Amino acid sequence: MDILKTNALSKTYRKTKALDGINLTIHQGDIYGFIGKNGAGKTTLIRVIAGIAEPTSGSFSLFGESEPASIIKTRRQMAAVVESPALHLNLSAYDNLKLQCILLGVQENHDGVIREVLKQVDLEKLLIERKKKAKNFSLGMRQRLGIAMALISKPKFLILDEPNNGLDPEGIRDLRQLLLKLNQEQGLTMLISSHMLTELSKLATRYGFIDRGKLLREITVDQLKKESRQATILQLGSNKLRIDNLTAAGLKDFELLGTQLRIYGSQSLQPYLNELVKQQVELLNMQKESDDLEAFFMKMIGGK
Length: 304
Description:
The chain is of the alpha/beta class. The protein has 2 domains: 2-225, Rossmann fold; 229-300, Alpha-Beta Plaits (2-Layer Sandwich), CATH 3.30.70. The chain is 34% helix and 28% strand. Strand 7, helix 6 and strand 8 form a beta-alpha-beta unit. The longest helix is centred in the middle third of the chain and has 18 residues, at 169-186. The protein is elongated and about 80 Å long.
């Protein structure tokens, strides 16, 4: 089932196209990593999906519904934390969550609901520290409290806009573990926008790359692994290695750059090492290298 599907979705602010014909699909169970530079259009798309902004043209469906009136109803099955959690800093975590229950019209016992969501985000200790105000929380705690507020409505689709902003390494790790748990144990589908690509690569199951309002590509984790070029680099003692001898030996998918022999893929190194011995070329060093998510993205947009 497609949770979100956009069709030529566009948004123009004056003369600037923030979104330019976006065709994006998020499947049930995805952790969809939405990648782009600042100003690429990530937050604009999130604001349109969340109903904060109206598209200029194009359309989208949410949980299979595409009519505006139906989308308003299906938005009850999604929750979004856009830019920063909307917390009342002078209220405690409990009171923030109670207010959210009231605003959402939650009919269940509020105390039970609050206890449940605080447990989900590993903030149970705040049931004891009830008087501690949100302004005295760490950024990591505020972010998790914001997610707890989003979980009040028991959504099936969670949107997070740059959730790691300002977090220290421990906070980033805790948030990652929380999001993985919500996805794996509760089947919560997520759209996460981020420029912290190394961290996003530890979470996402699919990626969408956006630049200057255009969706460049969607790709799964497995496709990314296949297309991220892996290389073994042999640092040689001279540039006297004869490439034609390597080719004659049936070796392929390599290149010689000065005194550096780059061998691509997962092929055996032994034939290359045998050739070095035959040609009496000294091997000084050997190391492995592979494109990470950041390098893949930069190549896609033509960056360095």
